[in-house]
Write a structure and sequence with these properties.
The chain is mainly alpha-helical. Helix content is 80%, strand content 0%.
């Protein structure tokens, strides 16, 4: 019998950290934490690490570790054949994110190259960004990202995913630490650090801060994506679900904090400590901050090119390690359905390229897909809580987690799964509905941030999967 292709213990930790640490840590977290009260946001964000992200990561790891199937197969075995469609929806959310995330990874490659070899052209960053996006060259860089990612995935778990993550993740942390040291030694850098970490009890009363912290925790840690479930299939029986996921959660949050400590003090210095200008820059959104504001400001400071290279190197590494996990999820589903790994990788890579092209050619399409499926992660997380409730929360905790974990979970875990996760899900959905209805033309099905557009895409996917549930259960989730 052939030896199972599985992660070593340290290899799984590195791969799981690679899954969790992505562009959301490097470009989104510094913006969101500064806009939402600095230290106050960090407090709320840490709370949700314990009452949303880590419980879901524990659930996902345990499901993959126990059932040894991809997302569809796991939902079929754990909830019953009638619920295979839920696993299909979870897989669709992550795969839809893969389509445009490969585009983001391509952007990062392009700008890493530019920061090293074309630094002088970044002196007009808005013009450079506009020219790049309008030229259609993003399609080429998307193809490069998928080609490299596909080649790594094709090598399998030990020789591919583990080897790459064991190389990249330590370097990523070293790069971030070097960047932080340089940022805080800039004149006024410590002021930026104080601004970042100073909490305000008054700001903790703002419900918007808490909702932003929850969405950041969801996006950043990979909780509810089905990714850690997929990786957990390739772990040994000795791996501890609680200890392992705690390492992932804290490692991911550490990377986010390091990224903020690199970006915020540097921006604070470059803007002369002007908080109003800082908020203007941060208000330019993820793309504007990363590809326009950061190059514009870094070019005017001492050793700016070095800082910019470090920034885009960390961003590219983070994008690639997350891209690998996003590719492996649908690849594993095709393997469960009977395809050989290399054929499954080729199928998913080509499919991802074709469906990612619209996002590469149009920022309007990109923004719509990002908005639609980022929110879909909340529904995916809710489905995982329903999985455990259907299976039996106490039974899941005692028989699947506590029997193999050195850290025993108590009844508080049951409370989080049964009550807190559903409440958090509905709170964000209701808040989102309220915000969307206030927008002009929320009913425009082709709008970038249209409520009707999102619900239509979700609805079409769910209805189709419910109608073909028997086929999915018998043919795909074998």
């Amino acid at each position: 019998m052939a030896k199972k292709d599985e992660f070593s213990r340290i290899g799984f930790i590195m791969a799981a950290l690679g899954m969790a640490i992505g562009t959301g840590n490097i470009w989104r977290f510094p913006r969101v934490v500064t806009q939402n009260g600095g230290g106050s946001f960090i407090i709320a964000w840490l709370v949700f690490l314990f009452i949303w992200s880590m419980p879901l990561l524990i659930i996902e790891f345990t499901i993959g570790h126990h059932f040894q199937k991809g997302v569809l197969g796991s939902f079929k075995k754990g909830m019953g054949e009638k619920f295979t469609w839920m696993g299909a929806f979870v897989a669709t959310v992550s795969t839809a994110i893969l389509f445009y995330y490969s585009v983001v990874t391509g952007w990062c490659i392009k700008y890493l190259y530019a920061s090293i070899f074309k630094f002088e052209k970044l002196s007009s960053p808005e013009k450079y960004w506009t020219g790049f996006i309008s030229s259609g060259h993003a399609v080429f860089y998307e193809a490069i990202a998928l080609l490299i990612g596909g080649m790594i995935i094709a090598y399998g778990i030990t020789a591919g995913i583990e080897r790459v993550n064991k190389f990249i993740i330590p370097i990523l942390f070293v790069v971030l630490i070097i960047g932080v040291i340089r940022a805080i030694t800039l004149p006024g850098g410590v002021r930026g650090l104080n601004y970042l970490f100073s909490p305000s009890l008054e700001k903790l009363k703002d419900y918007n801060l808490w909702l932003q912290a929850l969405t950041q925790s969801t996006w950043s840690t990979g909780a509810g994506w089905g990714l850690i479930l997929t990786y957990a299939i390739y772990t040994s029986k000795k791996d501890d679900p609680v200890y392992t996921t705690a390492t992932i959660g804290f490692g991911n949050n550490s990377a986010s904090l390091l990224a903020a400590m690199l970006v915020v003090p540097t921006l604070f210095y470059a803007l002369g400590g002007n908080e109003k200008k800082l908020f203007e820059v941060l208000g330019s959104g993820n793309q504007g901050l990363t590809f326009i504001s950061v190059p514009a400001l870094f070019k005017n400071i001492a050793f700016g090119q070095i800082l910019l290279i470090l920034f885009f190197l960390s961003l590219t590494f983070a994008a690639f390690t997350s891209l690998l996990s996003l590719l492996e999820l649908p690849v594993r589903i095709l393997i469960d359905a009977g395809l050989k790994r290399k054929k499954a990788v080729l199928t998913i890579a080509l499919f991802s390229f074709v469906l990612g092209v619209p996002s590469a050619l149009s920022l309007r399409v990109f923004n719509n897909q990002d908005f639609t499926w980022s929110l879909g992660l909340m529904l995916s997380g809710f489905f995982f809580s329903l999985f455990v409730i259907k299976y039996g929360v106490k039974k899941f905790r005692e028989e699947l987690i506590n029997k193999i974990s050195k850290i025993k979970l108590g009844k508080y875990f049951d409370f989080i799964v049964k009550f807190l996760i559903p409440v958090e899900f509905f709170a964000v959905i209701i808040w989102w509905f309220y915000q969307s209805v206030k927008l002009d033309k929320w009913y425009n099905i082709f709008g970038e941030y249209s409520l009707l557009s999102v619900l239509s895409q979700w609805g079409i996917v769910i209805i189709i999967y419910i109608l073909i549930n028997k086929f999915l259960s018998r043919k795909v989730a074998k």
